[in-house]
Design goal:
Length: about 110
């Protein structure tokens, strides 16, 4: 997967850059806080953004967030499961509320659907 962070100005984007001047390998600068990235995922993300545009990106985001909330509500409604945290965006974490819940069995069932 790939993530996108969009800034409304160059001033805000400036705070994303990371510079290391005391690294043993020399001066290191990167446009992201987490370091360099492979070109393939970056190019694929850029191509997807260009193809779908802002409206397509927003609609896809709505669908993803809606699905996460629906899954989170379903987990809350199931006996033996509990939601861990909140399913607000695109990550849904859950755990068994009883020791008898087998997470591998749940994963197998989810894979079949």
């Amino acid at each position: 997967g790939s993530s996108v962070v969009m800034f409304s100005s160059k001033t805000l984007r400036h705070f994303m850059y990371c510079y290391l001047t005391k690294w043993t390998g020399g001066i290191y600068a990167t446009p992201t806080m987490t370091g360099s990235r492979a070109g393939g995922p970056v190019a694929a993300t850029w191509a997807a953004m260009c193809k779908f545009g802002e409206k397509g990106y927003i609609e896809t985001t709505r669908q993803i967030v809606g699905a996460a909330k629906k899954i989170g509500q379903g987990i809350n409604d199931m006996k033996g499961l509990r939601l861990v945290g909140r399913a607000d965006v695109c990550v849904v974490a859950f755990a068994g509320s009883e020791e008898s819940v087998n997470c591998y069995a749940i994963a197998d069932c989810m894979q079949k659907k």
